[in-house]
Amino acid sequence: MAKQKGLPVAVVGAGMIKFGELFGQSYEDMIVGAYRACLKSVDKGVDEEDIEAGWLGTCIPGTGFRREILTGAGLAEPIRFFPKPVSRMENACCTGSDAVRNAAFSVAAGVYDLVLVIGAEKMRDIPSRDSLIAQTGIMYHSWWHPRGSSAPQRFGSLATAHMDKFGTKREHLAMIAVKNHHNGTMDPYTHFNFEITVEQALNAPIISWPLGLFDSCPTTDGAAAILLARQDRAKEYTDKPLYFLGSGLATDPMYLPWKKNFIEFPATQAAAKAAYEMAGIGPDDVDIAELHDCFTITELLTYEDMGFCKKGEGAKWLEEGHPMLDGSKPCNPSGGLKAKGHPIGATGVAQICELWWHLRGEAEERQVKNAEIACTHNLGGLGTTVLVNIFGKEPR
What we know:
Blueprint: E1 9-16, H1 27-41, E2 53-57, H2 73-76, E3 86-89, H3 95-108, E4 114-121, H4 128-136, H5 151-166, H6 170-184, H7 198-203, E5 206-208, E6 211-212, E7 222-230, E8 242-251, H8 266-279, E9 288-290, H9 296-305, H10 314-319, H11 336-340, H12 344-359, E10 373-380, E11 385-392
Parallel strand pairs: 2-3, 2-4, 9-10
Antiparallel strand pairs: 1-7, 1-8, 4-7, 5-6, 8-11, 10-11
Helix pairs in contact: 3-12, 6-9
């Protein structure tokens, strides 16, 4: 049986709020802000009554530290979406991207013509220690779980393994942090809007060797929204839609003792392969990549796992300038999770907002020139679940 080639789906609107420590905004305030920004972005306007269904991507409430019950009503209530159907998605750090994927599949299947996806996460209304416990899984008590193991420790293990096998240095990780902070100064939506130097990154307090303070993304509040329409109706809303070319989702064991090795993310490789095949492209065809840099080592490994360079050559590829804003394949022109922040449910949707601006030529001073095809990449857990979505200026 032949596999689907591309999706007959297009992004016709995209908007988000500024990420940060948004103590002055409620969860509902953030959703309304992102929704209004999305509606405003639709060039030819949109009648809200024409939006047939919604998907809400939120990871933490219900499964994490807040222990609240959150359903699709979490989206329906603040934007008065009743009685339309809303599905709530949660898939670790892939939550927002998976909400988009499932919404796109519903449009591709012919169930709906126009749907809304909103990703939102409120992470800073509790003490940092509580946030750490919830997000890293320290609270689990299964016999096979590495008790007391935090996310920095786990990703630090990957960094030391890559250093040992391929000669990667902390300076390379610092270069990624510097790059993403620099890009973030040109993005009005970032949590961290300041430059850093390689020396500052190297001399910052160590969180879990070899990862320091500037190797880690912040804990952030935020929301982002997009509208998806049938491809054959996209021009009713905008003359410059983004076409959904491909999507891939894959899984891998979460815990270190079950990993094949510590130098790669097999789920990224599998998800990228599936997305490339659906889009009918290869890694060389990608002009812009918004990558999941929860830690700097994650971005470096992803260069290799996405096929942008060979295994073990991520540091060399970085030194050659390829992922820089003026390089051959800019990675994280938004500033990435490192600068923009990582409100889990919003991240994957916000990445698409970034591609919306670049492929339409609206990214201002951080604009990547002549970009035709772009991708988003999200990695949940320790490479446990990975999702790659690919978009283009033209359908395929």
